[in-house]
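This protein record is not my work; I was only asked to verify it. Take the sequence as given and treat only the tokens as open to question. I have pasted the whole thing underneath without changing anything:
***
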Amino acid sequence: MTDPLDTLPGIGLDDLLRRAALQTRIDRKYVLDADRLPRLLAAVDGSAHILDIDGRRWFGYLSTYFDTPGLDAFHLAGRGRRRRFKVRTRVYRDSGEAWLEVKTRGPRGTTVKDRLPYPLAAAGTLTAAGREFVAGVLAARRVPGVEVAALAPALHTGYERATVVLEGPGGDSRATFDADLRWRRPGQAWEPAAPGRLIVETKGGATPSALDRALWRGGTRPSRVSKYGTGLSSLTDLPELKWHRVLERELSAA
């Protein structure tokens, strides 16, 4: 079957970053049946371009999420705390690049992401320099009480991602489409997370993007899906917290 995203004109990485880098943004996430994608794209108002690098439009990602022995990042996010945080290494499988990323909450519900280029060989671990970076970001973002020295891998995720730039009245925005999501705990085997479904994430300003509006018109509302929180809840006997509905209704087998 033809990929519906192949109908979109391509955009290079430099142009995408120039138009919609968005390290501070409002994120909205959705779970969408993959067979609905053609209708969704047809319903989007305005122009859209897809990231295209040497003819490739889907790119492989591998992430490792780190947490404290008490799983502070999991519990703070699951209970909606203002000073929550997320620490991960991310590998772009097609380019071989790796980054260390710290995500925190900014004013008015925004997500702030700080990134550090990272040695590919160290991905999945935290080096001394990596821990120093994490500690500095958390201090600057006023996230107190995190045992940075005790952070350890808690979950691994893998998926394929396509990235789209959308034009709109509030400026350009970005959206990602994640397919073939899988996750595993350290030392365990990979498990498929959402067969036949896409995790769609819009990243923009306070004004909803054209993709958000198309999703809403089609009856799809924002989801509380989180690759880390939902994944850890799914693979353990931890409380499901705010991800209960996602696991029961949106990611459960049809």
Remarks:
- The first helix runs from residue 13 to 20.
- The two ends are 21 Å apart (CA to CA).
